[in-house]
Amino acid sequence: MDLVINAFWPMVKAAVLISIPLAIASFIIGMILAVAVALIRVTPVGGWFYRIVLAIVKVYISIIRGTPMLVQISVVFYGLPALGIFIDPIPAAIIGFSLNIGAYASETVRAAISSVPKGQWEAGYTIGMSYMQTFRRIIAPQAFRVAIPPLSNTFISLFKDTSLASVVTVTEMFRVAQQMANMSYDFLPIYIEAGLVYWGFCWILFFIQAHLEKRMARYVAR
């Protein structure tokens, strides 16, 4: 019991100071990448340059979706030094997570944009809006409402996946649990406690997700 009590606050502190900021930073960067990738895939543009960019985007998505996140993070932190590129643990973890989120979330964003009826695009063009104006003012709010549930689930999964950052020596919550368990050689109670702490934070995120969905529904209804 003393071991469990002594391990609780260090794990919570690591979650608040490292795991959550790591997830937020990775998700923001990943979403910027995801929106850019999704727009490339849905924009009706021709020409050889666009086809090359589209091919690169498809290869990127295929590689990220076809390899484990653990491998991706390890390549960034342990593999790039072989090319003379050295990245600190936290930036390496953010890069790995962001690339992963960018690929997966781009499919969610693309599907959300495609779910908006084509008549909405035509309505924007009719009143003189450009492609980007129509997207920003008409399409994006509707697509965002559709995308909130899956993207919220993606963020919650990302928060749990920050435990993989322990592989690149980031002292996030799970690495703290590992350190506490290694000192006592009593792994089961510490790992169960770590799971419960993750669960508690996820319940908070579930509540925030539900609140965002309700607010977005009211915004679109107006």
- E-strand count: 0
- Give the ordered list of helices and strands: HHHHHHHH
Report the structural category. Answer: mainly alpha
Average predicted confidence as pLDDT: 89
The CATH class turns out to be Mainly Alpha
Number of helical runs? Answer: 8
The N- and C-terminal alpha carbons lie at a distance of 53 Å
- Annotated CATH architecture: Orthogonal Bundle
> Which segments are poorly predicted (pLDDT under 50) over 5 or more consecutive residues?
none
* Major sheet characteristics: none
Strand content: under 5%
Summed up, the domain count is 1
Shape: flat
Helix amount, in percent?
over 70%
CATH homologous superfamily name?
A: MetI-like
What is Rg? 21 Å
Instruction: Give the CATH topology.
Output: MetI-like fold
Describe the structure in your own words.
By secondary structure, the chain is mainly α. The protein has a single domain (1-217), classed as MetI-like (MetI-like fold, Orthogonal Bundle). Helices cover 83% and strands 0% of the residues. The protein has eight helices and no strands. α7 (173-184) runs antiparallel to α8 (187-221). The longest helix has 41 residues, at 2-42. The model has no long low-confidence stretch (mean pLDDT 89).
